[in-house]
Structure formats: C-alpha cells, structure tokens
C-alpha cells in the first residue's frame, strides 16, 4: 500500500468518465488500499480512483470514523435536498456550498466482488454523491450556483497550487462539465 499523488483540477482524467471494474483481483485490492491510505493521509472524507489517475469506478470514504469503499456504484437519491459546504482533494482549500440529496442509497460491490448496499444521510449521502460524480467526470464546482462557480473559478486561478501547475508547464485546461449537473444527480 502506498500514498499516491492526488490529481488536481485541470488534469483531464478528472473530466473523463471512469470504466467499470471487471476483475476483482489482487490489483483491485491494492488500488482500494492505495486509495484508502492516500485519503487518510490527505486527509479527506472520500477519494475516487480517477483522482489518483486510475480511470476505474472505485472510491473510498471516511465519514463519522467509518472507512468504506465501493466499486461500480449506482445511486438512488431521496427527494429532500440539503445545501452545505463541500470541498475536494483535487481543489486544495476550496470550499463552497453545494446542493445535494439529503439521502442516498449506493449499490455496488466490495473489493471481493460481493454486492454491497450503503444507505447514507447528510454528510455520508453528500460523500457518496461527490465520489460517484468523480466516476462520471463531474466535479463539485459543476454543482455550484453560477455565481458561486464564477467566484470559485477566480479563487482557483489565483491559487498557489493552480499557478504552480502553470509555471511547471502543466497549464490546466479549464472546461465546463458537459453533464447536466444542477440540482440532483440523475
């Protein structure tokens, strides 16, 4: 198990939908361990495989002192909406309010290929939606109101981490998600 580099906004892997996992093998278990170690080291409440450059439908979470992972997730969302602060390890120190469903049921598999159902409310529901979005190439800034997204983009362009990428020749490409993302996940 090892700590991996977290990909930052501008890396194309973050905007690319991830592929389903088809092999539940030793390599997958190592990926889950690397995701968990990297998330805990960061520290964060969740981390998706694309955030470490692996385009597979896998994520981990750490909410209310509970560690978990999910592979090939699908979500069913409740009708009630919550509005709360959200951040992302791919956007260091950036935090904005984003609307999410108050309740989420995630279905998928564990690293051994066994079916798993995770029911979450409030913060866990937010984490499940946020990480599943990563697997679909959707970023949390895509969930912001147009006004907040404009403020966030300004903050990103002025950030030290964004400018360090530019100075090293890795100028991030700023794109808007092609997905319809306002309101609920669909």
Q: Averaging pLDDT over every residue, what do you get?
A: 89
**CATH classification, class level:** Alpha Beta
Number of helices: 4
State the total count of DSSP E strands. 7
Q: What class, by secondary structure content? A: alpha+beta
> What's the story with the biggest beta sheet?
5 strands, antiparallel
CATH homologous superfamily title: Peptide deformylase
What's the domain count? 1
Strand arrangement, major sheet? 1-2-3-6-7
Q: How are helices and strands ordered from N to C?
A: HEEEEEEEHHH
The termini sit apart by 34 Å
Approximately what portion of the residues adopt beta-strand conformation?
25-35%
Give me the CATH fold name.
Answer: Peptide Deformylase
CATH architecture: Alpha-Beta Complex
Backbone CA Rg: 16 Å
Q: Estimate the global geometry from the Cα principal axes.
A: globular
Q: List low-pLDDT spans.
A: 171-186
Summarize the structure in words.
By secondary structure, this protein is α+β, with helices and mostly antiparallel strands. The chain has a single domain (12-167), classed as Peptide deformylase (Peptide Deformylase). 27% of the residues lie in helices and 29% in strands. The chain is built from four helices and seven strands, in the order H-E-E-E-E-E-E-E-H-H-H. The chain has helices spanning 26-41, 122-135, 146-158, 160-167; strands spanning 46-48, 58-63, 66-77, 81-88, 91-101, 103-109, 115-121. The longest helix is centred in the first third of the chain and has 16 residues, at 26-41. It is globular, with a radius of gyration of 16 Å.
């Amino acid at each position: 198990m090892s700590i991996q580099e977290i990909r930052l906004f501008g890396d194309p892997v973050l905007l690319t939908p991830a592929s389903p996992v088809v092999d539940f093998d030793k390599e997958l278990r190592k990926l889950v361990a690397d995701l968990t170690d990297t998330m805990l080291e960061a520290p964060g409440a969740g981390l998706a495989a694309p955030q470490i450059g692996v385009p597979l439908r896998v994520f981990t979470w750490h909410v209310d002192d509970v560690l978990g992972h999910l592979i090939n997730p699908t979500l069913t969302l409740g009708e009630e909406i919550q509005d709360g602060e959200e951040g992302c390890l791919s956007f260091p120190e950036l935090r904005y309010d984003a609307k999410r469903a108050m309740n989420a049921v995630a279905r998928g598999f564990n690293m051994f290929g066994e079916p798993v159902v995770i029911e979450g409310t409030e913060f866990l529901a937010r984490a499940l939606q946020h990480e599943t979005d990563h697997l679909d190439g959707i970023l949390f800034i895509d969930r912001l109101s147009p006004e907040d997204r404009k403020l966030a983009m300004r903050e990103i362009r002025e950030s030290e981490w964004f400018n360090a990428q530019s100075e090293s020749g890795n100028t991030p490409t700023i794109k808007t998600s092609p997905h319809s993302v306002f309101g609920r996940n669909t």
